Amino acid sequence: MAQSCLTLLSDFGLSDGYVGTMKGTIAQINPTLTVIDLTHQIPPQNIAAGRFCLMSAYPYFPRATVHIAVVDPGVGSSRRAIAVELATGFLVGPDNGLLSGVLSQHPAIAAVELNNPQYWRVVNPCTTFHGRDIFAPVGAQLASGVPLAALGTAISLQSLVSLTLPNWTERLNRETSQRVIQGAIQAIDHFGNLITNIPQETIQANTWSSVIQGIQIPGHNTYADVPKGSLLALIGSHGWVEIAKNQGNAQKHLQVEYAEKVEVFLESRLDAS
Q: pTM, whole model, 2 decimals?
């Protein structure tokens, strides 16, 4: 069997045996696969958080890596189980928007609905654990060289579910001539950092600030630029504007959730003298 890399992402946590069971299923098919855990601490049923984590991690893996993602509140329902081929890898998971972050940055080549039971663990999979009975075995088969087309019926790329998140927009404040970027919180990490959907490329200014819930928060380069316990805005390692609290939790401090509106005010341009 060919050696390849396979990743796992889920909201299963680590206190139960669900993750280990998926790994056992993979090992039964091909014990030579390199299996890497992205995370299993996605908040339960939080598709948006899983989407962001998978999207952020995807570029750092070798070509042809198979990424299995399971945040699946609709398991056992009419939602489709799918596999998607990209130029640089494969995605396996539920068609509920979980994969749409990666697909927004890395266009798909082909997709199939996983309806060929030959590649499932059992012909009659458990209605509550498709991670074990469909996604893990299919991912292992894909990483072992089984072609995408063998796994199920081809489906239209346009039919894939995309998680609805507000797009960032830009406007000009006519009174101050400031550029204003409007966006929203797309993820909240383990530290309580509020990660927006505003990309770093928009911050073409030496001086800038963010506003959330009417609170203005200055932009900085890193957490230590402000005193302990202070709020700040910065460009995170993922390449998005985030709002943080130095050695604290910005989410708890501000009591905000996903999709909360955020504005960034650009006060002076990088090329200004």
A: 0.90
